[in-house]
Amino acid sequence: GGDPVLCDADQFGVVCQWWLNEINLPAVGHWNVLHRVNWEENSPAVTVSFAELGLESDTDYLIYEFWTAQFQGIKRGQIEMPEAYENDLASYAIRKLESHPQIVSTNRHLSQGGVDLIEVKWDGMKLSGISNVVQNDRYELAVHIPAGYQLVRAEFDSNPAASHATADSLL
To answer: Which partner for 143 in 76, 90, 99, 171 could form a disulfide, CB atoms 3.0-4.6 Å apart?
Structure first.
C-alpha cells in the first residue's frame, strides 16, 4: 500500500463484490461479517465455503443477516446466499457456535456488535453485557439460546426489557 489519496465517491469503477470484516474485541469476542455488495444486475445465488474465508470448515457457525434481521441458522462448511438484486447489500455475521446462550447480532451497525458492544460475559448461568446505545433509539440484540437453556428474564439497566423467542432458538 501507498499513501492515502483522495477519490470521488460518486465515481464507480470495478468494485469487489465481497468484503470480509474480522472483528476481535477482547471483552466481547471474535466474529466475521461477510458483505456481498452487488452493483450490477441481479446476481445468482452462491455458496461460499468457510475455508475460503479462512474459517474452520468442520465447525458450526451462527449466521445472521443484518439488513433483513434474519437468522440464517447454524451452518457448517459453507453458507448458501440467495440471489442478490441490483444495488443490493447483504451483511452476514458469522459467529462460532458456543454451547451456551450468545449474542448473534445487534441492530446498531452492520458490524453487528463491533461498534456498540463493550463487554459480553457468560458466567455459567447468565449472559450479560455493556453496550453503547443512542438515546431514544430502539436497540435490539439477537441472542441464540441453545437447547437446554431458557429465557428467565431480560433486563436493561435493571428494568424489564421487551423480548420474544422465535422457533429457531433466537431471542
So the answer is: 171
* pLDDT, averaged in runs of 10, over the chain (171 residues): 54 76 96 92 94 96 96 96 92 97 95 96 93 91 92 85 76 66
Tell whether pTM > 0.85.
yes
